[in-house]
Amino acid sequence: MMKETENRSPFLLACQRxxxxxxxxxxxxxxxxxxxxxxxxxxxxxxxxxCKKPELAAEVTLQPLQKIKVDAxxxxxxxxxxxxxxxxxxxxxxxxxxxxxxxIREMKDVDRLKIIEPEEDTPFLMKAIRIVRKExxxxxxxxxxxxxxxxxxxxxxxxxxSQNYILxxxxxxxxxxxxxxxxxxxxxxxxxxxxxQIRAGVQAVQVFDSWVGCLSQADYKExxxxxxxxxxxxxxxxVPAIHFGTSTSTLLPLMKRAGGDVIGVDWRDDxxxxxxxxxxxxxxxxxxxxxxxxxxxDLIKKEVKRILRQADGRPGHIFNLGHGILPNTPVEHxxxxxxxxxxxxxx
Length: 347
Ligand code: CP3
Known about the structure:
The chain is α/β, with parallel strands linked by helices. The chain has a single domain, classed as TIM Barrel (Alpha-Beta Barrel). The protein has 17 helices and nine strands. The protein has helices at about 1-10, 10-15, 35-45, 45-50, 55-60, 85, 105-110, 120, 125-135, 150-160, 165-175, 175-200, 215-235, 250-260, 270-280, 295-310, 330-345, and strands at about 75, 90-95, 95-100, 140-145, 205-210, 240-245, 260-265, 285-290, 315-320. The strands form two sheets. It has a seven-stranded parallel sheet with strand order 1-4-5-6-7-8-9. A two-stranded antiparallel sheet has the order 2-3. Strand 6, helix 14 and strand 7 form a beta-alpha-beta unit. Helix 5 packs across helix 9. The radius of gyration is 19 Å and the shape is globular. Bound molecules: coproporphyrinogen III. Coproporphyrinogen III binds near residues 29, 98 and 145.
C-alpha cells in the first residue's frame, strides 16, 4: 500500500529523473514565520522547544499542508540540532540568529567533540519523523535533512553566522590538521544522523551547504569536497539525496561530483544553463527568487513560466525557491505559486 504511493509520488519520481504528470514542488522553510498558525504557536514556545517536542515539531511540519498543495513535507527541525549533543550548545538570541556558547578553534576543542548516537542524543527528531509519517498516511513523502560539514563547521568556528568567514578560512589555510579532524568528526556525525532519520522513516534527505558559496573552486575541491562526498557516499541508498547550497554558480559541477541525486540551484543562476553545466545525469531543484513572492501575481506567473521553460519539461526538475521562504511572505502568494507550477507544467 505504502509502496504503491511511493512509486507514484511525483517528487520521488523526479528525484530519479523519471517522467511525472506535472513538475513537483515543495518549498524550503515551508513551515515557518510567514504562516499565522506558526507565529501563534511561537508565542507559547521557543523555536528550540518546538524542535525538541516531537508532537509540536510534527504539528508544525504538517501546518503548511493544510494550505499549500506541495508534493513533499520536510521535517521541522534545524541544521544546528546535532551540534548541541556534540558539545557545542547554542541559543537563538532575539533577532540575531544562533549564538554559540563556545567556539571551536583549536585541536583540543575538536578532540572534545562527541560523536553522537542520533537515536539516543536526538530522540525527539526520530519520534517526530515517526509521528509525521503516520499522519501523512503515505499521501506525500517526508524529507529529512542535515547541514553539510562546511556550513556547520563555519557556525561552530565563528560562534554564529559570519560575513567573511575569516576564522573558518584561517583554520583551513593555517591549521590543516585541526580542520581535517573537525571535518572528519562532523562527517561521521552527519552520516549517522541522516541514516538514523532514514531508519526512522524519511523518504528523501537534503544536505544544506548553505554558506559554501564563499569558497573558491580550488578551496572547495581541497577542503570540502572529500567530506561532502564521504557523507553522500555513505548514506543509505534506498532514498534519494538532494545537495543544496547558495551562491554556488561556480561550484555546481564540483557539488555534483561530491554527490547527490538532485543538485539545488539558487536564483542567481539560469536553471537551464546550470543544469547543462551540472549534467543531465542528475536532477535539479529550484530556483525562484524568494523575493518574487512579495510581488504581484503577474510577476510570480512570469517567473514560474520562465523557470519551467528553462527546465524544458526534462524529467528530474523539482520546483522550489532558490533559498528559504522569507518571513512576511504573503501566504496567498505561496498558495498561488504551488497551484501555478502544477497547472503550467501539467502534461
Ligand atoms: O524547511 C523547513 O521548513 C524545515 C525547517 C528548517 C528550519 N531551518 C527551521 C527554522 C530547515 C530545513 C532549516 C535549515 C537551516 N537552519 C539552515 C539551512 C537552510 C538555509 O536557510 O540556508 C540554516 C543556515 C539554519 C540555521 C538557522 N536556523 C538560522 C541562521 C536561523 C535564524 C535565522 C532566521 O531566519 O531567523 C534559524 C532559525 C530557524 N530555523 C527558524 C525556522 C522556522 C526561525 C525560528 C523562529 O524564530 O521561529
